[in-house]
Amino acid sequence: LELYLRRAPWCGGYEARLVYEAVPPRTERDAATTLRHFVAAFHDRDSLAIAALYAAAGAHDDPHRPDEAGRPTRHVGQVAVQSYFAGVFHQVPWLALRLRDVQPAETLSDQPGGVRLRAQVEYMDARLDAPRAGALQLDLVNGQIFASRLEVLDPAAQQEAPEAAADAR
């Protein structure tokens, strides 16, 4: 609360009070806003901004670096997520991520108020001749990411998928 008091000489000493109410910063984001912030922070190579979107116990799965059992490596907690993305951004001179399509949100049955967003993205970096298709999945509760997975799809698999769909018809 800020109180400002000033006696104005031009109006005969009339007392003017201006009171400002402090507005707390908005802590909850909707799922679509969180998705846009994630893509923007990735595009800006801002690992701190990405980590700030995660819940304290949030996790990111990296399918490109599997563990010894062949499962995606899991980075748990904001510090681990920030460290992971900082490493990714350090390894490649420049990166770009563009949203292509977002599927309607699915409700998570095990998390009250939770939703799962799946988006098709295009990934580009300096080593590639053309953008690669990718998939981004975010599990969110109250606008905070609890689980995520960003996967760049193999170009050979991308070419086989339309052929397999044509064969199925």
What is the structure about, briefly put?
Helix content is 28%, strand content 43%.
Explain the layout of strands and helices.
Elements: E1 2-8, E2 14-20, H1 31-43, H2 47-52, E3 54-66, E4 72-76, H3 78-91, E5 95-102, E6 106-107, E7 114-125, E8 132-141, E9 144-152, H4 155-168
Parallel strand pairs: 3-9
Antiparallel strand pairs: 1-2, 3-4, 5-7, 6-7, 7-8, 8-9
From the structure above, extract its key features.
9 strands, 169 residues, alpha+beta, disordered C terminus, seven-stranded mixed beta sheet
Description of the molecule:
This protein is α+β, with helices and mostly antiparallel strands. Strands 3, 4, 5, 6, 7, 8 and 9 form a 7-stranded mixed β-sheet that branches. It starts with a strand and ends with a helix. The protein is built from 4 helices and 9 strands, in the order ββααββαβββββα. Helices cover 28% and strands 43% of the residues. The longest helix is centred in the middle third of the chain and has 14 residues.
> Strand tally, please?
9
Oligomer: single chain
Strand content: 35-45%
Give a quick account of the main beta sheet: strands, pairing sense, barrel closure.
7 strands, mixed
Helical content (DSSP H or I, runs of 4+): 25-40%
Question: Which whole number gives the mean pLDDT?
Answer: 82
**Structural class based on helices, strands and sheet pairing:** alpha+beta
The geometry reads as globular
Intertermini distance: 67 Å
Stretches where pLDDT falls below 50 for ≥5 residues?
A: 160-169
Cα gyration radius (Å): 23 Å
Number of alpha- plus pi-helical segments: 4
Order of helices and strands: EEHHEEHEEEEEH
